[in-house]
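Throughout this chapter, every protein is written as a compact record of paired, labelled lines. The reader may check this reading against the record printed directly beneath this paragraph:
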Amino acid sequence: MMDPCGALRSVHSDASFNPLNTMQLQFFGAADCVTGSRHHVQIGGSRVLLDCGLFQGYKVLRERNWAPPPPALLDLDAIVLSHAHLDHSGWLPVLVRHGWRGPVYASPATCDLAEVLLRDSAHLQEEDARRANRCGYSRHQKALPLYTKADVQRTLTLLKPLPTGRAQRIGAATLMLSPVGHLLGACAVHLATGNESLLFSGDLGRSNDLLMPPPAPAPAADVLIVESTYGNRRHPAEDVAPRLAGIVRDTIARGGSVLLPAFAVGRAQALLLVLQRLKAAGQIPPDLPVFLDSPMAIAATALYRRHARALRIPAREAKALMDGVRAVETAQQSIRLTRMRYPSVIISASGMATGGRVLHHLKAMAPDPRHHLVFAGFQVAGSRGAHLVAGAREVKVHGAYVPVRAQVSQLEGFSGHADADEILAWLGALPQAPQQTYVVHGEPEAADTLRLRIQDQLRWQVRVPQQGELVAP
């Protein structure tokens, strides 16, 4: 297992008692939490890492990002990314910094989005380190970024676009990707040899997502690794559009503005789509200023328009996402925006208020009861977003506590994750039952609840692995 700082400890496993099995799995992340997706697979002699994500949320989890990579994660034949979100791709530059130079396979859209996300991640980390050193609120003698823009540049040269449905050999194994909605480019991963196979769900999308088609049917596999982010929940039946319209109307009526912390990739584009539709329907003022204050979100929106064929919306709507929206490119423009006194809607990253420009807007708007902070989607435990949604009356930003007098709401209907029923439906559509299923990428309660449903409803062999556990299914 891993201790809180990420050091690996040995655990008992059936791997040592079943020499006939050739497949081995080791769970280096997302086994006891909903973040840090890293799953090591040995199949047919090939060694593959499924995802290479950052741990996010509680400090005890974030500290794992700083632990040196275990030797197994530097002795690989390939890395495969299910999608570009940082909790699935954001640790790649750390491996590169420690010497990894092998291929990283992902769908073409994931490769494009990963470039945007990783460059922004390095920029934010360098900026946060500089700010901490300048303002003196780092506990260390000198704050350092986890990785730099130069590390990211080296990482990007390793990305190998793999279209969905096309086979790629990795030693004796064959890799194929199949779309799962959730995010532009997101895919399930299928690895197979002549004797055994494995399917990794990545993050599953919803059947009625605003932007993405529902998950495509996946091939059968002997071993399944499935996510459980919403493994203990069902999405509310409410239509988020009317609720957001009501929030906007009420807020601007009292002279306030709406701040929408949003993931720059996926969530920001969904919010833009809904706001455009609300304006077109006259449910919010058509001349209400809407600002997109995130260079990464601006770049990602351009990619969504470029890959419009992968979306479920008409091409004209994809093309119109930025119509009338004011793109805030520079830091100076963002600072000026925090001083604006006119009602508006501001979309800014990050979606859980863990970093980025949204923190400056949070500091400026949270103390004012006229404003409304609206979190669209899941908030990881320990994040500022989770604290605010839970009713925190102050939050720490840039080393100082900020009072929270603004109204705070959460719109779970914007989530890009399949809920428990949708996960079960996807599993039930597999051509045959796997011999063994592992439930990952969920908080403990969510993962165990999904485990029980799979066991009771599908009658499959299923378990929740431990962090760092080695198994031979």
